[in-house]
Amino acid sequence: MKDFFTGNKITILLHLLAWAILLGIPLFFIKRWQVGDDFIWFYYINTIISGIIFYTNYILLVPRFFFNSRRYRYFLSAIIFVICFYFVSDISNGLVFKYVPGKENMEEFRRPEERDQEKGAPVGGRMFGRPPFREMHIYSYTFNSLFLVFFSLGLRVLERNSRIEKLQKELEKEKLNSELAFLKNQISPHFFFNTLNNIYSLISINAEDSQKAVLQLSKLMRYLLYDSEHGNTLLSNEIDFMNNYIDLMKLRMSNKIDLKVSFPEKYEDIIIPPLIFISFIENAFKHGISYREKSFIDISMTTEKESIKFRCVNSLVKIREDNESVHSGIGLHNVTKRLNLLFPGRHDIKINKSETEFEVLLQINFA
After folding, report:
1. Rounded Cα–Cα distance for residues 183 and 195 (Å)
2. Among 89, 190, 245, 361, who pairs with 350 as Cys (CB 3.0-4.6 Å)?
3. Total H helices, total E strands in the chain
4. In degrees, to the nearest 5, what angle opens at C-alpha 62 toward C-alphas 59 and 68?
5. Is the distance from CB of 199 to CB of 213 less than 8 angstroms?
6. Inter-axis angle of helices 71-97 and 133-203, to 10 degrees?
7. Distance (Å) of CA 90 to CA 13, 77, 120, 133, 229
């Protein structure tokens, strides 16, 4: 009962509206057809009894027995309840019409031709008579009560399933948000750790460039700590972030490294999740360049109205065997998992690896 009254306000209003219509119908008949008081009382009593059957089953029996894996108790309780209220209805009808409904008490209410009909005399050339009141009352009450029981049961089950489905969606959404926040928080320290290592190696080579690198890093960290904390960001901000990171990496590059970067100059500044592409670029700089032999990095992005295509290709540098699985590190694994959570069925990522190249192709569809 508490669950019903603290539930959806719209549901409660619909119930009140239905009762307003049901209780207001007799007033229409009274004014239009001048129906007798007996009919009005008969209607109201049976309507109230129907309401008691409906709400007792809807509020008490279904939640207490049907939803608690005690189905046999539910059906037994419903049957007993319906039978008990048949006698309540029977007695109420008798009080309204001043007689106990039955053939033996209806003589004064029957027309002479109907009495002749009962004796077998034809009326107007054919057999005609009023159906027995008690039998009709039993049939009518049985049909109405069973309809109310199963209708209230079905309505309650549908409402419960709807609440469960809504709760599951909320839990899935909360789980998704928590997991995305966890993955994003993993990316930032991982990115910061790798960048500090790069600056550390630069300090011993060129102090002036290392100072520029620290300044560049502060811009990157500002984006990581503040601008990307709102859950989404503009594509222009993400491109600026990637350009700043690439400029930082250039400070420690030699002439043997061929770097090509192609970002779109004109594009629709759509809203995207932050830090989607940086992990691929970071992996390319960390594991795809060499200071002793020629190496290359090729980064490109194209945008359309409802999609983004990103490509990052880098040379594979000979490294120790225990580091050969570096391209499946934390950053790359996390961004792949984030894509599955953020764009299920709306992205396509391909990772191609040969003896000399490592390529990432990513397409995200926003429609």
Report:
1. 19
2. 361
3. 11, 7
4. 125
5. yes
6. 140
7. 32, 20, 29, 11, 70
Which candidate, 244, 199, 201, places its Cα nearest to that of 221?
244
User: How many other C-beta atoms lie within 10 A of the C-beta of residue 177?
Assistant: 12
Residues spanned by the domain of 66: 2-98+131-169
Q: Pairing mode, if any, of strands 357-365 and 347-353?
A: antiparallel
Beta 271-272 vs 295-303: how paired, if at all? unpaired
Q: Residue 279 domain-assigned? A: yes
Question: Based on the number of CB atoms within 10 Å of its own CB, is 355 exposed (0-12), middle (13-18) or buried (19 or more)?
Answer: exposed
CA dihedral 288, 293, 297, 298 (to 10 degrees): -140
Distance, CA of 105 to CA of 108 (rounded, Å):
8
Beta-carbon count within 10 A of 249 CB: 22
Whether 176 is covered by a domain: the verdict is: no
Contact 168, 71 (CB under 8 A): no
Give the total number of structural domains in the chain.
2
pLDDT digit string, tens, across residues 62-88? 888 888 877 888 889 889 988 888 888
Q: Retrieve residue 335's tokens.
A: 């961004």
The pLDDT tens digits of the residues spanning 4-44 come to: 555 567 777 887 888 888 777 777 766 666 666 667 777 78
Backbone angles phi, psi at 129, to 5 degrees: -170, 160
Pick the closest to residue 18 from 50, 56, 59 (CA basis).
Answer: 50
- The token pair that represents 79 in the structure block: 């049957």
Nearest to 86 by CA among 143, 44, 148, 142: 142
Q: Is residue 178 part of a domain?
A: no
Per-residue CA distances from 346 to 178, 269, 295, 349 (Å): 21, 19, 33, 10
| Separation CA 3–CA 318 (nearest Å) | 66
